[in-house]
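Protein modeling request. Please complete all fields; requests missing the sequence field cannot be processed.
Requester role: graduate student
Desired output: 3D structure, token encoding
Chains: 1
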Amino acid sequence: MVGRLLRVSTRDGTRGVALDVGATAPATRWLLPGGDVPASGEEDVVVANPSDHEALVSTVFLVESGTGPVGVQDVPVPAGGRKALKVSDQVPGGTRHATILTSTNGVPVVAERLTLGPQGAYQTVLGSPAAAARWVVAAGSAAGGTDTLALLADGPDKAFCRVTILTGSGPVAPPQLASVGVMPGQRASVDLTPYLNGQPATVLVEATTGKVAVENDLVLPPAYRETIETAGTPLG
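Delivered output (236 residues):
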């Protein structure tokens, strides 16, 4: 198993901590459900190409309603190299969105999102190579903050998801989260803050119809200057 612990602290004020588990394999398609272009800052999708052949990658942006901005098409990523695609040049600041990245010439790559937010807050999160029917993801913090669950339906049909919060005292199944609808070609956001009571938890997402990709984004109180972006783990 390979992981990365990244601590960023620069003279210009950029600061952050990112903890990722490495990708087990490259893929030709990556789902990044939880994009949120900061009103002041930058968001990139960083693509690594571990193969011996050049990859051509394209992006599609999905928003919470309507049609998302047009992505980039057939951007070359050199063999054994990487390329940063600047999402904030294409998606307006303050827009919650999901990103689907595809290798159009079939050369598998690895994709992660990098966000440089207000006051220099720095965070990365790895994409998911496929959708699934069941997910778990970490959420909440004893420090409080606001917590947003991002859901991306991957397929032609609307997905319905049941969200259960697993706490130290047992599972909590809010009736408001018993059937969260996610339209095809759109991202859905769920505010988990009222259900976490200022405590850490694990969130179980079960798609009763369709398949989804899942991410959780926790914004800690201003004193911490931190956002914790966590990709979900598929179950089965």
